[in-house]
From TrEMBL:
Domain TRAPPC10/Trs130 C-terminal: 1195-1263
Protein name (record): Trafficking protein particle complex subunit 10
Localization in the cell: Golgi apparatus
Skewed-composition ranges (Basic and acidic residues): 898-910
Domain spans labelled Trafficking protein particle complex subunit: 571-660
Coiled coil ranges: none
Organism expressing this protein natively: Sphagnum troendelagicum
Main location: Golgi
Length: 1294
């Protein structure tokens, strides 16, 4: 079907909202069926195809039934002749209602009429055969008629007929009827969508031709969107409008496009029509070819918003609307000269408020928190944008004094330009009264804060309004710059900013008076020139106000500009709603900042309580974010509110907050005023105590270095550094600190006070805190508290800024921070400790039974041993000569080799600043009487060594003796030294006093033990190489001392049964070996040749047979390293006893392995091993040692037992190489006759290949020296791999 390029257009005021279904009532049945048909409308769960031919289920499909005889359808052009843009209004289905019970009537009358109705191919139809009564369902004629009807009008592909009972119809019949109607609608919709798409494609192809008309394209595109909207396919309809908007913007923004009428000049255009698409007959405008951008873009957005609302997506409407308003506002800028005065600002305000109201009414709570927060963010942005434009209008008409000159408002308005009309509005004829009223209003607006100087206020305008307005006057074509910018007529708000971003200069009183005089209206006779004189600022405000009130059509906005009270109400409403929505969204900071703007309005109105609450929220935000500059701007207003409300606690806290800001943000005079206010209230103005947190003003920290160390029950003094942020001295009544224990949470905080009444000066102060006795553990500083009159000050350790600066400084300056993380302990309380460390000077052994110098190291531990008494007691086995002369020397002199190495003794360890006598060079003799010696003064603070002579004479069965040492402060020696219990280690006990830092009130003991040892360790070895009884005896002497030992002479006294061969005196052989020198921990050997003497053995005493070695030696050693000789040339003696035994020389039994009978031994093959056991000497082999013992006792007669002897054997084998088949352990019976023999056989299986050790036979109850291994068995046996299997020997490929 051909489609014309232009179409006759019947304008529509609104788009249809329901699909039309035509009813062809052949037998006048609609009056009866109308009610049940319409009762099932709208259709539920109807499935239609979208533009992409995908099935979409509509929850509700509205349908309207219209008779074909109705005037609405009868006046329309048939569908086949209807222009394409109007097809969406045609019926989408035709329902034919018939009834008949006569076959002839059907053939002659009904059938021809039905043929005529259904011959149109573009019409979707189906026939409903109505049964008027229940009897008709059983009537054969009726059934024949319906059968004939189905055969002629239905087909296999599609059923076009259905029966419907007029009374008592089943639900399934109605569902089937509904499904057939939906099927007809779906087919018609798909066909018409194809037709529209084809037309859109043709129009798009001719888009760049000169004859192309956007109106035709828009009509086709929008009618397609109408059709989708009626079919409940809002997504497809929205997509059509998006494409239409995109194409229109491309056309408008294309270069070299002829400018057309923009619009916006009609009455009421200042009120946005974002959601009022039917405000103007837009379709008629399109038909007439007059498409104005101002109206068209708003119409498109209204249609998009309507579709989004029907989809229940108000958040998307808000998002799109926010973007559209900002974009369209920028579009209005080039056309501002042709538009009414301030239409751009008024349109933005009404658009934001209309959009906010509509979206808020339709928004429902969602489960997703992010979606909800984003919606409230959009609402807040719209309110804030409308608020900004409203403030520009208010500043334009002279209400700028009411607006708070905060950073938020300044940032918004300073970047917002003034209106730029072609002609600035003229001053009205009745301007005198208005100018006088505005003059009085501006004079009444004073914002002075008592006691604190106001900061320089920010500007609310991008440029001087006076210059901008006079430049756009209608009659001003030329003029003098001094006339256009008359500084005498500028108010405070219109003063230009200072150079380099400084604050605007304030007006002097004379200048302000002259300004007020010059603002009076000038009579017309004063204008003598052809050019009118420039308007002053008040005239500009009055002219703008007059123009706005005459042009604004929105009553709410117009009312808000009529008076100051109405302006404040509207401004407060916008600000509060914006803040509330910001609080609901994720932008909490914006909400708090706008709360400050609300607080400013309350402050101007005198509602100080509400203003103070909001200002507290703003100050809390600024303080937490460390925006100190902004905090300094708001705190003075809060302080003024709290002072007038007489809330002294909050007032003092705010004063402290303001004092704690950076120094450049507050003048010194203001700081002195605030400090005087605090001191005055603390001493006179408060009836009850007030607790005040001054952590931001007064900070503190412990002094540097290690923590103070105290012992339990000891008091002390702690030095604390306190930084004060006050500008003058503050006399505190008291100052205290809390100590917090780190070792337990149950200890709690303990309060300690200062020693003196402190006076805090500005900057750094050193305060001494008295520390009473505390429990052992570590303590950190908790909080600093003080009393200033009725004010209780409190400061915490965790402070992010110092008292004077937020940046801090070096530790020596007054701006150092007290912030420590983690906290460093300031006090360490220790358990009662030893004040003296005593240990042996030499760790190696000293000689026993010889006088030895024992070195005792005395190390003071952070304590002075002046006039200390050392008491030395010895235990059993030790002898201390008394009286004797001891020797005392400096530790570093006694052990100089340790000065360059890391030593356990440190001369500077724990030393105190006590006066000390210089130590002497070398030794200092000290007299010991009754085990008591007094230390010299020079040894009171340094480590020293006390040398005393002790001799150890231990019993052989006792442990090495020890020495007990005690130190007492003079003159308090132990009352009864003999009462001390015997000790196995050295001990020390201290009971001393100390000055400011440390004192010990108990007794502490610690044990140490000196070491005594013998000079040698003896090892004996005997070897026999013949049958004559001669033995070689080797005695090895190993040195056990850290000294050189020289053996001068040695003699061996043999036990009975042995005698010397070479030297009857028993000296070693050869004698030229002596003297023999042995170094420290070295060893040497002495050789003796002896012979066994059986006769002497029988005559001697055999109860305790021992041989004794007597050695005479000299020792050359240093007492600083260990053993030494007390007398230079004196020979020392050493004796050692041991027992000699005659080695076994007779072999009684022979065990030998016989030859292996098997050859080619292989893995897995059983092998028989045989061992022959033969007696070499008559008698029992297991009791040979008993016979020797019997001979030693002189028994000449030996009884020979003729019975057989039981010998136990065990087979030693490597289990990884062999497997035994037999008894691994057993016994054999062997006769005691000479030459008796027996054979032991054992079956074994080798497990590995190669040379392996064969099994070995051991006799368990016969000593090894009495066994002869003959014949000797093989050391290794060669084991071959197992025989190959023939089943695996198959050549590859055969």
């Amino acid at each position: 079907m051909a489609k014309p390029s232009s179409f006759p257009f019947a304008p529509l005021n609104n788009s249809p909202d329901r699909l039309v279904v035509a009813i062809e009532d052949v037998n006048d049945l609609w009056s009866i069926l109308k009610e049940p048909f319409e009762a099932r409308v709208p259709f539920r769960k109807a499935t239609l195809n979208n533009k992409a031919r995908n099935p979409v289920t509509a929850e509700q499909l509205p349908v309207e039934y219209i008779l074909t005889t109705d005037a609405r359808l009868r006046t329309r052009i048939p569908t086949d002749q209807l222009p394409l843009p109007l097809w969406y209004r045609s019926p989408y289905a035709t329902v034919v209602l018939i009834t008949c019970d006569d076959l002839d009537e059907y053939k002659n009358v009904l059938k021809p009429r039905l043929k005529a109705l259904v011959q149109n191919e573009d019409r979707e139809w189906f026939i409903v055969f109505v049964l008027k009564s229940v009897a008709d369902s059983t009537n054969k004629l009726v059934r024949r008629v319906y059968s004939k009807l189905e055969n002629e009008f239905s087909s296999k592909r599609r059923e076009r007929c259905c029966k419907l009972e007029l009374h008592g119809g089943e639900t399934a019949v109605w569902d089937d009827l509904e499904s057939k109607i939906v099927e007809c609608i779906r087919i018609t919709l798909d066909r018409r969508v194809l037709y529209y798409e084809e037309e859109v494609r043709k129009l798009s192809e001719t888009r760049f031709l000169p004859t192309w008309n956007f109106g035709n394209f828009f009509i086709v595109k929008e009618r397609l969107a109408f059709m989708f909207e009626m079919a409940q396919l809002q997504e497809d309809a929205l997509r059509e409008y998006d494409e239409l908007e995109q194409i229109y913007l491309e056309i408008v923004n294309a270069p070299n496009v002829k400018a057309k009428e923009f619009g916006g000049t009609d009455i009421g255009d200042d009120r946005a029509a974002l959601l009022e698409g039917l405000r103007k007959p837009f379709s008629q405008f399109v038909h007439d070819g007059v498409v104005r951008e101002f109206d068209f873009r708003q119409y498109l957005f209204s249609r998009q918003a309507q579709l989004l609302f029907s989809l229940n997506r108000p958040a998307e409407v808000a998002a799109r609307g926010n973007t559209f308003i900002m974009t369209f506002s920028r579009t209005l800028v080039p056309h501002e000269k042709k538009l009414p005065f301030c239409l751009r600002e008024v349109w933005v305000i009404t658009a934001c408020l209309t959009l906010v109201k509509a979206t808020a009414q339709r928004f429902t709570w969602r489960t997703a928190p992010d979606m909800e927060k984003d919606f409230y963010r959009l609402q807040a942005d719209l309110y804030f944008y409308a608020r900004t434009k409203f403030m520009r209008l208010a500043d334009l008409i002279g209400y700028g004094k009411i607006i708070e000159r905060s950073p938020c408002n300044s940032a918004a308005l300073s970047m917002l330009p003034w209106p730029k009309p072609a002609v600035w509005p003229a001053v009205p004829s009745d301007a005198a009264a208005r100018i006088l009223a505005k003059e009085q209003f501006q004079a009444a607006q004073q914002n002075n804060l008592e006691g604190i100087a106001l900061k320089n206020q920010l500007s609310l305008s991008p440029s001087v309004l006076l210059r901008e307005a006079n430049r756009r006057r209608a009659s001003l074509s030329a003029g003098n710059l001094s006339e256009m910018v008359d500084t005498n007529r500028l108010s405070f708000s219109e003063t230009s900013p200072a150079v380099d971003g400084g604050a605007p200069a304030s007006l002097s009183p004379s200048t302000s008076k002259e300004s007020l005089e010059n603002t009076q209206p000038r009579p017309l006779e004063t204008a003598r020139s052809n050019i009118d004189p420039p308007m002053n600022l008040l005239e500009i405000h009055v002219a703008a106000e007059h123009a706005l009130l005459n042009s604004i059509t929105d009553e709410t906005l117009r009312k808000s500009l009529t008076s100051v009270e109405n302006f404040e109400e509207f401004y407060l409403d916008l600000t509060r709603k914006s803040a509330d929505n910001f609080h609901r969204s994720s932008r909490k900071r914006h909400g708090v900042i706008l709360d400050g703007e609300v607080a400013a309005v309350h402050y101007h109105r005198g509602a100080l309580d509400a203003a103070a609450k909001l200002y507290e929220k703003v100050c809390a935000l600024y303080a937490s974010e460390r925006w100190n500059a902004l905090l300094a701007e708001v705190l003075p207003r809060l302080i003024n509110c709290q002072r007038q409300l007489r809330d002294w606690s909050a007032y003092l806290f705010s004063c402290v907050k303001l004092l704690s800001v950076d120094s450049f943000l507050l003048s010194t005079e203001d700081r002195r005023y605030l400090q005087s206010e605090i001191v005055k209230l603390a001493h006179n103005g408060l009836k009850v105590p007030v607790f005040l947190d001054v952590s931001a003003l007064i900070t503190f920290a412990a002094r540097g270095g290690p923590p103070l160390e105290l012992c339990e029950s000891d008091p002390g003094v702690l030095e604390v550094v306190v930084w004060s942020g006050f500008v003058e001295d503050v006399c505190m009544e008291s100052l205290s600190l809390t100590l917090i224990a780190t070792f337990t949470a149950d200890e709690g905080a303990k309060v300690v006070k200062s020693l003196q009444t402190p006076v805090l000066k500005p900057g750094k102060n050193r305060v001494l805190i008295d520390i009473p006795p505390q429990r052992p553990g570590s303590y950190v500083l908790g909080a600093l508290t003080g009393h200033l009159g009725q004010v209780r000050l409190r400061s915490h350790t965790y402070c992010s800024t110092s008292a004077a600066s937020s940046k801090g400084g070096p530790p020596g300056s007054d701006d150092v921070l007290s912030y420590e993380k983690p906290l460093r302990p300031v006090l360490e309380v220790l358990q009662p400790r030893a004040l003296v460390e005593i240990k042996a000077a030499v760790a190696t052994g000293l000689l026993v039974r010889e006088p030895q110098w024992v070195g005792i190291v005395i190390q003071p531990l952070n304590y002075s041993l002046k006039r200390a008494v050392v008491y030395i007691s010895v235990g059993p086995g030790l002898c201390l000569e008394s009286p004797q002369t001891a020797q005392l020397e400096l530790y570093s002199s006694a052990f100089p080799h340790e000065s360059g190495e890391k030593s356990e003794i440190d001369d500077n360890k724990g030393t105190m600043d006590f006066p000390s006598t210089p130590p002497p060079e070398g030794f200092e003799p000290l007299e010991i009487k009754n085990g008591t010696v007094v230390l010299s003064d020079w040894a009171s603070t340094v480590a020293s060594v006390l040398w005393v002579q002790v001799m150890a004479t231990p019993d052989p069965e006792e442990k090495m003796p020890s020495t007990g040492i005690q130190i007492f402060p003079a003159p308090h020696p132990p009352a009864s030294p003999k009462a001390l219990p015997p000790r196995t280690t050295s001990s020390k006990a201290s009971q001393l006093g100390f000055n400011h830092t440390l004192s010990i009130n108990g007794s502490i003991q610690e044990s140490r033990a000196p070491s005594f040892t013998c000079p040698f360790r003896t090892l004996v070895r005997t070897v026999s190489q013949g049958n004559d009884g001669t033995l070689f005896l080797q005695v090895t002497l190993k040195s056990q001392v850290e000294a050189i030992v020289t053996i001068v002479d040695a003699k061996l006294a043999l036990q009975p049964g042995f005698s010397h061969v070479d030297d009857p005196e028993g000296r070693p052989s050869p004698s030229l070996l002596l003297p023999l020198s042995l170094s420290a921990t070295r060893e040497g050997a002495l050789l003796f040749v002896v012979r066994s003497d059986l006769a002497a053995r029988k005559e001697g005493n055999m109860l305790f047979p021992k041989s004794t070695l007597n050695v005479q030696y000299k020792i050359s050693g240093d007492r600083r390293h260990g053993a030494h000789s007390h007398q230079g040339s004196h020979l020392l003696e050493y004796s050692s006893s041991f027992v000699l035994e005659m080695p076994v020389l007779e072999q009684l039994v022979a065990v030998g392995m016989l030859a292996i009978l098997s050859k080619n031994l292989r893995v897995g093959q059983q092998i028989i091993f045989q061992w022959r056991v033969e007696r070499l000497k008559e008698g029992r082999a297991t009791l040979c040692f008993q016979r020797e013992a019997g001979d030693a006792h002189g028994s000449d007669s030996t009884s020979k037992d003729e019975d057989a002897e039981e010998l136990s054997y065990e087979l030693k084998i490597n289990e990884k190489s062999w497997m035994i088949a037999g008894r691994k352990k057993g016994s054999i019976s062997l006769s005691q006759q000479l030459g008796a023999r027996t054979v032991i056989s054992m079956a074994c299986v080798p497990l590995v290949t190669g040379h392996v050790h064969p099994p070995a036979l051991h006799l368990a109850n016969v000593s090894r020296p009495n066994i002869s291994h003959s014949p000797a068995g093989p050391h290794l046996v060669c084991i071959l791999p197992p025989d190959p299997c023939s089943a695996l020997c198959v050549k590859k490929g055969i």
